[in-house]
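Hi Y.,

Following your request, here is the sequence exactly as I used it, all 671 residues.
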Amino acid sequence: MKLHILAALLTLLLSCAFVASSLFADGVIAVAPPDIRTPPVDDPPPPMPGIGVGTPVPVPRPVTPVPVRPSVTVRYLRVEVNIGDQVAVTKADQVFVNDSNRILEGTYVFPLPEDASISSFAMYIDGQKTEGKLLTREEARRIYEETVSRQRDPALLEYIGRGAFQARVFPIPAKGERRIQLEYTQVLGRDGDLVRYMYPLTGAKMMAETMQQVSIHVTINGRQAIKAVYSPSHDIVVTRRGENTVEASYEASNVRPDRDFVLYHSLAAGDVQASLLTYRRSGEDGYFLLLVTPRTEVEAARVVARDVILVLDTSGSMQGDKISQAKEAARFVVDRLNPDDRFALIAFNTTVNRFGEGLMTMQDRDAARRFIAGLAAAGSTNINQALLEALKGVDNERPTVIIFLTDGLPTVGVTDSGQIIANVDKAAPPSVRLFTFGVGYDVNTHLLDTLAANHRGSSAYVKPGENLEDAISGFYAKISTPILTDVSLDFGGVRTSDVYPDPLPDLFAGSQLVLVGRYRTTGTTAITLRGVINERNQQFTYSNLSFPVQTGSDTAFIARLWATRRVGYLLTQIRLHGTDKELVDEIVSLSTRYGIVTPYTSFLVDERQDVLTSSGQQKAGESLGRALAAPAPTAGAAAVQDSQVLRNLREAPSGSAAMQPAQVRMAADKT
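Below is the corresponding structure, written out as tokens. Let me know if you'd prefer a different format.
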């Protein structure tokens, strides 16, 4: 039947102009449904209190014992955030699902920021959106109770404590759902050049069930250029739409959100901007996080001219899709060269086939495309000769990027990986950056990882079924515009240690360097960033940066991020150079304290082993030492997986890179 809307309850009287204090004092927002008469029923029991955002707590009708595991789950949570000039407008859209065979009442508790102002609250009833109205607390509660008593569909949003609101929803039909939308506005605080936004997700951890889908999309617009964009809590995808607009997105399926979503962004001018965050507990060395962000758009004169050498495996095992995708990737690289770049193309199998002599210029690109088109897969794999050919004639004073791609083990020429590494180390000058790509599982990960690590590059692996062209072109797009090479940092009078990444990578337009480390001395200092631009020394100085004696807990995530990278570094050292008791003991200590779980340390979550005691840590160290001392696979799926795990730890963008299972007990810096 056609539903008749009660106009009085559909008129939205609350707008963004209302300040938070007026709403907190005596206002709530209520939603009432169409007037459908149903037989009266007993008053419902009071709702069970809940904690956190989007947490539906079921209260059955009639009164029955509340189940230990709630029957109301969340099908999706979708959050859209628009930030402009430090004003954030957040729109949350959430659906509750009643998985039980009973009618339930849901209580939804939302911990709003203290300075937030509710602008709208609505519930969908049979697919129809019903808006809220600003009422006094007493009037809203009366309407809610009267409506529930007639089994109609209301939702009530009320202030239940400092910075929190509560939505009561009844009924949620058996096997049915209810959709809630909430919008609020807040002014974001600014600390120096950093602006912090937080969306509360932690409430969901009180539920045993998972959220089926969570997505958060943030659009940042600024009159000033937006530089650093960083989330310490979640792995985000950042898309830049120019200097003044940036989008940050997070999506996950079948997860139990147990960390608030936190996003920092900075506003500043200049070619390279640096932002500092610190964390320090009383009596301990501190932790710092430095975000170094170059401009997105760079004048051509400030782009570093370099040499790009692409080395492609064309052995017989590359036949089919692999050689086709490799050729497309090679064309992409040639097409994306900068005007002052030089390049070389080297194809190898049993022998080496080089395009032209020496390094080529932009005038040779058409001929290079024809060379690529004629490549075919056949023969064996001579890795040593291919790499030495790539290093012939390298300019010691000019930045050189070597992109090396192979899908196999060395089968002809020098085949000993140790000798290949030594030969490359001897031939490569400091100006070389070597990036290796392994295709498939039949690759020597120890060889590829060591070559990349020794020459300030990185290694990556394209698994069977993944697209090789996408992997290489995506990588090259990120490094296509270098603006500072041979990067170093000077922290002035502040003593720092264990800084990661180590060594520091080159800086590229549109990229972001996330640097973490420890600091011992405190005070205000100037940090100097040095590097080279087209054979000219360049430096950037950032003054009045504070390394305090003690900080609050908002930045405690820095300690965990540092520990994650430190564990990745230590495990990599053991994998490449052999086991060491001191390194093993430190891995156990860090993994225990910060709850870092990796394939190498997963036994630490065994509740039968007390790793929080000195004897337990000693036993854990012995177990880990034996595990790491065993010969590690250098090829195959397990070797590729190990390499990727360690890289993820070393380059962890946030402290969530190696999240601990629920049973891990953390000794300090709890999250």
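The first helix runs from residue 7 to 10.

Thanks again,
Q.
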